[in-house]
């Protein structure tokens, strides 16, 4: 078993602590949080050793799970990697691209494994259909959340939209050609509502909307590709797959057939992929353990986390451009 230590005991950090404690792949050694009162309270609640000294915890483990505020990701990861430890870093990977590039270089130099916590990759709905998403030409995503003060210290792009950015980059095999975006601040000092249009060099276009001041929660993505429409509901963990094929010469009574202006006939049919229930956070943590043990690349390596951050920062930069052109 790999010895693990957690940095950060906030809302998400406590979830990681509970799951790592239950995991058969890790031996949870302890955790650190700079708030000593919070740390001791969590230690008593979970029965997990609290380390007042972060360096002492890093020295005692094989894997450092970083669930601290984004601004501290770089410092925590640099210390852990410098001590020869594998790292799991919650999204977004770092605050800046320069920090991300430095961590990637340091990790490679040390020959270690690192993974970024883009948890929607492990959502059972996405897992059920990701192999069917091939060369999408239009993607539409909506990620709406009711207001929660937690996370409002960063733009909604880094808080919510980055999940969809990562999913899109994982299925579109092309470089980004252009980004247009606009954002509106309603309650926070940074944008609470954002819309972005990402155009890829292969012609694919993705339209993303994110809001953290909605009346209801929604996390849905729609993928349009030749002869197929795939909808993924990340919140409800449901999928909808609609496909087309050449219509038979003699369609059945209940077959759905469309005919275009040229006379070509297509049959519409539905698929119902099996959705296997899982715990996405536990799966992403254990995926890193597998990568370490088998010496393979993790499902979401630091390079992919850095690419998602790059696009997110370009979207935020586009906000300013749109204001200047208004």
Query: Over the alpha carbons, how many angstroms does the gyration radius reach?
Result: 22 Å
CATH structural architecture of the largest domain: 2-Layer Sandwich
Classification by helices and strands: alpha/beta
Low-confidence stretches: none
Mean pLDDT figure: 93
The figure for the number of domains is: 2
The neighbouring-strand order within the major sheet is 7-8-9-6-10-11-12-14-13
How is the biggest beta sheet arranged? 9 strands, mixed
What is the β-strand count? Answer: 14
How far the N terminus sits from the C terminus, by CA atoms, comes to 57 Å
Strand content: 25-35%
CATH topology of the largest domain, by name, is: Dihydrodipicolinate Reductase, domain 2
Give a written overview of the molecule.
It comes from Robiginitalea aurantiaca. Residues 155-216 form the GFO/IDH/MocA-like oxidoreductase domain. InterPro entries: Gfo/Idh/MocA-like_OxRdtase_N, Gfo/Idh/MocA_Oxidoreductases, GFO_IDH_MocA-like_dom, NAD(P)-bd_dom_sf. This is Gfo/Idh/MocA family oxidoreductase. The chain is an alpha/beta fold and 326 residues long. The protein has two domains: 2-112, NAD(P)-binding Rossmann-like Domain (Rossmann fold, 3-Layer(aba) Sandwich); 124-279 and 311-325, Dihydrodipicolinate Reductase, domain 2. The chain has nine helices and 14 strands. The chain has a nine-stranded mixed beta sheet with strand order 7-8-9-6-10-11-12-14-13. A five-stranded parallel beta sheet has the order 2-1-3-4-5, with helices on both faces. A hairpin with a 2-residue loop joins strand 10 (218-225) and strand 11 (228-233). Helix 4 (73-82) packs parallel to helix 5 (97-110), helix 5 runs antiparallel to helix 9 and helix 7 (156-171) crosses helix 9 (302-325).
């Amino acid at each position: 078993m790999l010895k693990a230590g957690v940095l950060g005991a906030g809302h998400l950090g406590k979830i990681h602590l509970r799951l790592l404690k239950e995991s058969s792949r890790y031996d949870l050694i302890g955790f650190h949080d700079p708030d000593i009162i919070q740390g001791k309270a969590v230690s008593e609640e979970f029965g997990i050793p609290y380390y007042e000294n972060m360096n002492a915890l890093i020295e005692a483990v094989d894997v450092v799970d970083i669930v601290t505020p984004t601004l501290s990701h770089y410092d925590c990861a640099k210390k852990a990697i410098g001590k020869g430890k594998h790292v799991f870093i919650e999204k977004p990977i770092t605050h800046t691209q320069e920090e991300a590039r430095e961590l990637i270089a340091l990790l490679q130099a040390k020959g270690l494994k690192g993974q970024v916590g883009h948890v929607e990759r492990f959502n059972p709905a996405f897992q059920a259909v990701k192999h069917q998403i091939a060369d999408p030409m239009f993607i539409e995503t909506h990620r709406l959340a009711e207001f929660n003060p937690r996370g409002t210290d960063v733009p909604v792009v880094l808080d919510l939209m980055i999940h969809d950015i990562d999913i899109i980059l994982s299925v579109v095999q092309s470089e980004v050609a252009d980004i247009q975006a606009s954002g509106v601040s309603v309650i926070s000092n940074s944008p609470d509502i954002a819309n972005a249009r990402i155009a890829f060099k292969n012609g694919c276009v993705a339209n993303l909307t994110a809001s953290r001041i909605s009346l209801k929660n929604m996390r849905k993505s729609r993928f349009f590709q030749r002869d197929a429409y795939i909808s993924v509901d990340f919140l409800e963990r449901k999928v909808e797959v609609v496909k087309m094929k050449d219509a038979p010469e003699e369609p059945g009574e209940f077959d759905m057939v469309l005919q275009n202006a040229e006379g070509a006939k297509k049959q519409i049919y539905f698929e119902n992929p099996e959705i296997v229930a899982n715990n996405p956070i536990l799966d992403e943590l254990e995926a890193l353990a597998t990568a370490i043990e088998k010496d393979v690349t993790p499902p979401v390596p630091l390079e992919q986390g850095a690419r998602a951050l790059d696009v997110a920062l370009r979207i935020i930069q586009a906000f300013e451009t749109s204001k200047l052109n208004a």
